[in-house]
Amino acid sequence: METSKNMSILLVEDHDVQRRTMARILKGLGADVIEVDNGRPALEVINGDRHVDLVICDIDMPDMDGLAFLRNIGQSGNQTSVVICSAKDRGVLNAAYMMAKEYGVRLLGLIEKPFSRESFEKILLDQFPMLGDSSKRRATGGLDFSIDQILEGLHENQFVPFFQPKVDIKTEKPVGAEVLVRWLHPEHGIVGPNAFIRKLEERCLIEGLTLSLLTKASRALIQWRSRGVDSRLAVNISASLLSDVTFSDRVVELVGREGLDCRDFVLEITETAAMADVAPVLENLVRLRMRGFGLSIDDYGTGFSSLQQLSRIPFTELKIDKSFVTDCASSASMETIVECSIDLAHQLGLQCVAEGVETREVMDKLRTLGCDLAQGYLFAKPMEQNRCLDFLRVSGARG
Ligand code: G
Ligand code: G
Ligand code: MN
Known about the structure:
Blueprint: E1 7-12, H1 16-28, E2 31-36, H2 39-47, E3 54-57, H3 66-75, E4 81-86, H4 90-102, E5 107-112, H5 117-132, H6 135-140, H7 147-155, E6 159-168, E7 174-185, E8 189-191, H8 197-202, H9 206-226, E9 232-238, H10 247-257, E10 265-270, H11 278-291, E11 294-300, H12 307-312, E12 317-320, H13 322-325, H14 332-347, E13 351-355, H15 360-369, E14 373-375, H16 385-394
Parallel strand pairs: 1-2, 1-3, 3-4, 4-5, 7-9, 9-10, 10-11, 11-12, 12-13, 13-14
Antiparallel strand pairs: 6-7, 6-14, 7-8
The site of one guanosine-5'-monophosphate has 16 residues, from strand 10 and strand 11.
């Protein structure tokens, strides 16, 4: 955020009194405010010459409502940050938030009415600069790599595993770590998976990266063990890799070659598209399971991670997507979804992992609900090999 000039905020609110009150608060915080009373003039401002740093937008407005306005900015690829502010009930607000996210709107958060000076301060003084360099944005950072650049990076061995601990919810001790790939780019620094995974998957080129990470992660585990720290590693496997029936053999062979046991690993299966041909996928997964790999259904509850998958694949772990976990201590519907997912996992004999645990409140809620493992910024962000070793050592990984 620039400090030399005022932040410019577009306020989209049809209720005159509320809009004036908000404008006064925002100006008091040092922002320039442009006021409009529905989506149509707001779009004109957004598409005009004036620079806008942030949009604060009501949902229910006459003429063009907030939903249509958000759709318009999302579809046009406009990346101005948006905060939704509304008096609607939490369910409607959450649904509007999800909808806007799906349209590609860059969302900073929700403000529920009645609002206070504090609710805005939180966004402006804390959330805005923080999200300005959040790991997700740093991940892609607006970078758009060509497939050739990505392959060149692979060739130059620039991809490394980062590790994020998973902790036992009862003891709060780490029991494993998820391997999350990072590109150590010579010019752009640390680049996250959003900038390259999808592109590799689409061209069926993800196997090289996955096997190279698995090798590097195996060597990290061996190094940790030589320092007296044990862990189990979770590796992400794109479902697209499983269409080739020989994939499982290569994975088993690799792990053996590195001198490790398949039981040292959990494979987190992530699906980005419906599987066309299920038989080879099942063959691979049953073989991997027979060899001793744990199998986790990743991002459960989103996309194609469905009940159908649970019914036919021999999973050992269910990972509840962070979009449900984040709000499970403050939203009744999210809590219900998390609770039912935990019960479902347990009744199917699976371990349950909650990802995206950022607060004590969420952790306490998960403990009450009987969840087994937690992963999230509350404990640690994804970190490089040696820092993760320090973390595991200090917090007493179970050996
Ligand atoms: O921290 P984060 O930005 O690391 O990861 C973003 C997404 O990228 C996660 O949902 C994760 O599943 C995916 N991801 C991270 N590493 C890998 C990988 O090695 N292979 C695949 N297929 N996906 C990965
Ligand atoms: O593969 P999967 O979707 O499970 O990968 C986990 C993703 O979630 C990674 O992008 C990781 O960086 C991210 N992540 C891990 N912990 C947290 C957290 O506490 N909050 C948020 N917002 N993201 C997290
Ligand atoms: Mn994962």
